[in-house]
């Protein structure tokens, strides 16, 4: 599994707490966590995978992705990036800037 978490750009304490809880959950359950910079970009990337009949806005603040049976080269690159962050104890987790 992989968790994508939006960068917290808010001063809202409740959102900060929610993000810390998600980070702690992922850490305790060995789920790689990647922070991304933009909900709009995530929405654009995932738009082909959403139900066109659903009129409710999707909450994309945190996304859990299950592993596929076989990883693509891009997925392998992300897994290697996460392993590098963990092995080198890089804190805080870097935020990945998604392409436009």
From TrEMBL:
InterPro entries: GADD45, Ribosomal_eL30-like_sf
GO annotation terms (biological process): regulation of cell cycle
A GO CC term assigned to this protein in UniProt: nucleus
Gene3D superfamilies per record: 3.30.1330.30
Protein name, entry field: Growth arrest and DNA damage-inducible protein GADD45 alpha
């Amino acid at each position: 599994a992989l968790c994508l978490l939006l960068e917290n750009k808010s001063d809202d304490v409740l959102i900060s707490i929610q993000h810390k809880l998600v980070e702690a959950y992922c850490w305790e359950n060995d789920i790689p966590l990647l922070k991304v910079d933009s909900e709009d970009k995530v929405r654009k990337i995932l738009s082909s995978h959403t139900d066109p009949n659903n009129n409710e806005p999707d909450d994309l603040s945190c996304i859990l992705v299950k592993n596929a049976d076989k990883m693509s080269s891009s997925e392998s690159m992300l897994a290697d990036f996460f392993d590098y962050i963990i092995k080198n104890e890089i804190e805080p987790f870097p935020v990945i800037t998604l392409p436009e």
